[in-house]
Give the backbone structure.
Amino acid sequence: MIAQSGGPTVAINASLAGIISQSIKQETFTKIYGAINGIEGVLNEKFIDLSIKFMDHNDKIQLLKNSPAMFLGSCRYKLSDPTIDKLEYQRVFKIFAKLNISTFYYIGGNDSMDTVAKLSQYAKENNLDTIIVGIPKTIDNDLCFTDHTPGFGSAAKYIATTMLEIAYDTFIYNLHSVTIVEIMGRNAGWLTAAAALARNKYYKAPHLIYLPEVVFSMEQFIQDIKKVMLVEKNVIIAVSEGIRGKDRGYISAMGAEKDQFGHSQLSGTGKYLEQKVGEGIGCKVRSIELNVLQRSAAHIASLTDINESYLLGKKAVSMLGTDLNGKMLTLERTGNSPYCINIKAICSADVANKEKKVPSDWINQEGNDVTENMISYLKPLIEGEIDLQYVGGIPKYLPVNYWDEV
Amino acid sequence: MIAQSGGPTVAINASLAGIISQSIKQETFTKIYGAINGIEGVLNEKFIDLSIKFMDHNDKIQLLKNSPAMFLGSCRYKLSDPTIDKLEYQRVFKIFAKLNISTFYYIGGNDSMDTVAKLSQYAKENNLDTIIVGIPKTIDNDLCFTDHTPGFGSAAKYIATTMLEIAYDTFIYNLHSVTIVEIMGRNAGWLTAAAALARNKYYKAPHLIYLPEVVFSMEQFIQDIKKVMLVEKNVIIAVSEGIRGKDRGYISAMGAEKDQFGHSQLSGTGKYLEQKVGEGIGCKVRSIELNVLQRSAAHIASLTDINESYLLGKKAVSMLGTDLNGKMLTLERTGNSPYCINIKAICSADVANKEKKVPSDWINQEGNDVTENMISYLKPLIEGEIDLQYVGGIPKYLPVNYWDEV
């Protein structure tokens, strides 16, 4: 049985496709179930038969590999503490027993690995023999013990490409301007750092990069912009939605604090900074929020990312002999030139509910840019373009919510 | 001499590439100047020699064809009324005479056609023999007397693709939600209408479409959403930034009216509607502003659009014998299956400072969707994908602001 959980990425279906493809190839399982809407689908017994849907349909597997979001739907559901309430666990394993589930794959992020850890622990303690395996995904790249996470490379490629195109949009007028681009990432700055990949031998945009790992100072921010403006007509800034001030409160919330009249929900980090730059510098200012396209723009997915995610799915089947129970698969980078990865596995409990931040020596001393270490780390992850089918001028993706329920 | 003006599009460089390519092929001109930053560049004598740059460099012409924004930079400059102030006109034609300019091409939108009309009128009245030719571009598709405008098809393709990917991002959770996507277009709804192209046999998203041509009613809007919600779990709405209420004031400004405390600039149309839907319906609501990517996302340009824009540039040279003076080239659609266009020319004064709105019979009776006429009109314009080069995982575009000044 396979399920997907957490926020969408462009690569999460590639891992699903990898599991299905390898299972069919190895004839590992007699049947492959998909649970609809994550662990909730298991508890509610909402399943589809993936073996019927994909057996002898390699074209569909390829389409699945390149389709965004989650074919099986998602949930945000935290299992209860098993020392307090065992009912959910009993229900899950009763259903597993009824359907004769030998292996349960859960594709997700930090929270999903909590589910993997809890289920496998419960199985161990109760001598139940369903193997529970975690497969990582998150655009945030904040999982520990893996070089990077599936979905991150594609989000990074979208951000870098978009940042380059925003720069082109900015350069055309002969006047001073500041453009603030707000990028996802509440606690970790990996996605915002990826904006640096837009730079080339002609353009230094984004000229400034602010990550949540650095304490944000509005005075310094305005000074930084003024300094760049001495040499650049158009200043382009990448800023994480999660930047925080000295008091560790979100900058975006600072506007809310000042507004007593219930309009706080109108203000994002970028919009708030736009206002402040307008006041502090007085040139043309605009802010752009990249929004959900960062995690759903499959049309500009990274081939490296999609292939790695697919491989993780395949390995989750082919490595079953090596005691994968309770483990999450990881990507280990063995080289950068040529870029090379190995797939390993780690105890999911070690990953669950933790966040990997950007190391401080990958951020420059001024706290307004990333260093060469970060660039070298990021570069291989956005390499390559997928071969997408277009119908009527728009990409062809496998539809979701259109499975027949078993 | 060639110059570009107004807001950027993904296709405006294709027209420039077309002029250069055809001029070189036909040996029409001994020299091709590019004026930097539109008519301002002419007045300030900021030129580059495009013949040197592109002669025997077909690879560079191809790269230019696929590069976003404006290679020559832009301006927003309105020439004075020649009956009041002739100084600027004297200066322009003195410079043309000095450089022996036989033809001046101006690539732009409504305002740029005003420049074309004024310059050609002045030339006629003063027996000056520089031919002034307008080449249309605008993502807004609001130029009269042309079936559509270069740049619109690519913007429409970006909007349709993005809308589809937003829909995928939305479908994954098993809960009710409303997603409001704000699309460019202050006065004309063409771009917002293009969101309808995201629909396929599985998905009806966007379920509701609101154009500036229809008087917007907040009560009706909330009723419309409630009605869709009876059959759809996730309601996705395309809304033009320019929707207006009965008093013809922008909806986005309604929030500003209610907020006495200087926070009006924080609120866009989408954000304002998000708040209203939150209050009126109370489910999960989010708004997404597509922003400048609509006009700069060259990585998902429409091949039809790029090829037509290129062809317009070529025709602007090859048709020179047919009295193009003071004219703007137009696209005339001669068929839809197969889709076919002719290139014609019309007096630029007829186009200048006018806007083409969406016809009322292309909008449904309820005023919350477009009709089949609109879909048939739009479909061919987003067909085809360009063959883009990628370097290091991001698109390769010709750099701007890096010409040596002549």
About this structure: The longest strand of chain A covers residues 327-336. The radius of gyration of chain A is 23 Å. Chain A touches chain B through 69 residues (CB under 8 Å). Residues 152-171 of chain A form the longest helix (20 residues).
